[in-house]
Structures are given as structure tokens and as C-alpha cells.
Amino acid sequence: MALEKTWRWFGANDTITLPELRQFGVEGIVTALHHIKGGAVWPVEEILAVKEEIERNGMRWSVVESLPVSEEVKICSDKREELIENYKISLRNLAECGIDTVCYNFMPVLDWARTDLHYLNENGAESMLYDHETFAAFDIFILQRPNAEVDYPSHVVDKARGIFENMSEEEQNTLAYNIIVVTQGFINGTVGNVSNFKQIFLDYISRYDNINRDTLRTHLSRFLEDVLPVAEECGINLCIHPDDPPYPLLGLPRIASTAQDFEWIFNEHPSINNGLTYCSGSLSVREDNDLVAIARTFAERIHFVHLRNIKRIGERSFYESAHLDGVANMYGIVKALLEEQHRRTAAGRKDTRMPFRPDHGLKILDDFARKSNPGYPLVGRMKGFCEISGLELGIESALK
Fold it and tell me: Are 341 and 269 within one domain?
């Protein structure tokens, strides 16, 4: 047995082609209808067009990442009901086309955050870095979010001020553009590539002024209450992605960061279709997250797996490292996942594939000559893909 080997592919605009992926053993594709605006219905004919293209190249559409949850749903605006109905229709259409796993997140406004998209490690490989003090400089002094400084300890504010004062105007604008537009643009970004992106971003944040952690939890629960019955009816596994990074940003609450968060989510809605996208990279940022324990505790609900690693470099700061080299115990994680796969097989569960993909990779070798989305080079991810596949083979042989 083995976890299904998948790869995130961004469709026609991806410089990595499906035939290339097939050459090195990819079995399933993780993708979305990137050309359809968030909140709109995914039509059957559009789903089938992508699915059939993937199948012509000898692979399957394994996971939808993501069917976006609109900001209007997260804040429960007056547009919520219409968007929930659209979501239900899209789930039914995906099921009609034979797609059974949907990854989503419930992070307010900002899906994920990094402050340096071109961080060079000691070997000259390029990855991405999140520096908490630089992010504070962006939040307090560049974005000038009202009362932002109260969300940071005084020593972080002082260091952020120093960082800001030593930045040129061009560097300030680049930092803001990367955080708001570049990292979000290829995954249904909220703001879009517009000249007044900072003001639009602030406007979105302000819509959460009266939404605290408990309120956002309630909104997630309402979302699941509405869509889970459809998922159950259609045989679709929904899997929430952890917050990235897994703590509050921009004064906005985060509700999918710890084992306690997931316990609450699954206790509220016990259906097995209410599951987890296990992301070792996101979860490993918090020192109090025991990644192997989380994998074991929620094993039966892990419907999709992201495997990557990070190294911590200070208070709430980290950079993305090689897949087997970092704080995440990849051996222990993969072993726990394979043991769960054995349990599912023995129990006669149908969802034994447990698709994994190598998440963000280092930019190395020919990656520097090929255009790619931040975190998604070819060679660096392929290296991680092969490393994890080899680790998996060794563990599987030992388990036998």
C-alpha cells in the first residue's frame, strides 16, 4: 500500500505540464477551476473539461484545492444564502463528475502570509520566509491598520519601527504588494491586482471589526451545517486546511490552528465527511503543536495530506526548508498516516487512497529558469516528492 501520489497543478497557466508530471510517477492531480470567480457555481461541463484532460494524460483528478469559501460566507453577510446555494450546487456537480475530495479553508481575508518570497538558504536554494517583525512593520507602518500596534508586544513594535525606517519606499510597496496580491493572486485572492490594493485590503479587514474568535467559529459551524448534508449525500469528503501561519494576523481571528481547534470543529459536526487537510508545514510553525500526535488523534478524518517542512528562526518566524530537513518529524508523520491507511483497509472503508502532495518546495537547479507560482517550483517539489516516496517505501516495508 501507499498514499496516493498527487501534485498541485494550476491548469493552462502552469508552466509544468501534465505529461511532465506523469513521467515521474504522479498518480493524481490537485487542482481547481481557477478561471471561475470565487462564489460562482462550478458547471458540470467545466469540471468535465479539466477532468478529461487530466485523464487523457493517465492520471485522475484526485482533490479539489480549493472550492473557495467566500468572504461573504465567513462574515455571514446578506449575500450568504445565495453563495451557500452555489457551493452546494458545485459540490453536487463535482460528485456527478466522480470527484470526492474538496479542500477548503476558513481564514479571514488572507489565506497565507510570507514576508520574503525569495529567501536564499545556506545552500543557495530559494524558498519563502515569514518574519513576524517584518510583518508587524507592514501591518503597523505600511498598511497603517487602525490600532494595529495593540496586537503586538512592545518589543515587536519597536523592532518593526526600526525595520520600517530602514526600508525605501520601493521596498515598502514591494512588501505590501507581495503580501496582499502576489501570494494570493493565483488562489482566488480576495483583493486582486489593482492600484489601490492596500485600501481594498483594509476595507476587507474592517468587515471583521465585530467578529471575534467565537463569532467566526459560529460562522464556520453554520457553513458546515449547511453544506455537510450535501457532502454526505454525494459522498464528498470536505477537509479544512489549517491556518497559515497558525496564529492570528492583522487583528483577525484564526480558528484552525491547534489540536484543540480541530477537536472543536469535529465535535460540533461529527460526520466523517467533516475532515482535515493535514498540512505539516502550517502546523509545525507552532512549537506547541505535536504533529505526530495530531496525525494520530485525527487520523480517521485526514482526507488529504500536505507534506513539507520549516525551520524556526525566531519568535513566530520561520522559513520553508527541504521536505525531510526541519522541525517536522516526517518519519513519524508518514508512519502514522500509513498505519491509518492499513486500518481503513482492514475496516473496509472506501477512502483508502489518502492522497498526499509535496507542498511548497525549494527552488533549485533549473527552477531558476522556469516561471512558477511562489512555493511551487518543479525540481524542488519533485525532490520532495521522491524523498517522501522513498521514506514511505521504507516505512511500508517495515510495517509488513
Answer: yes
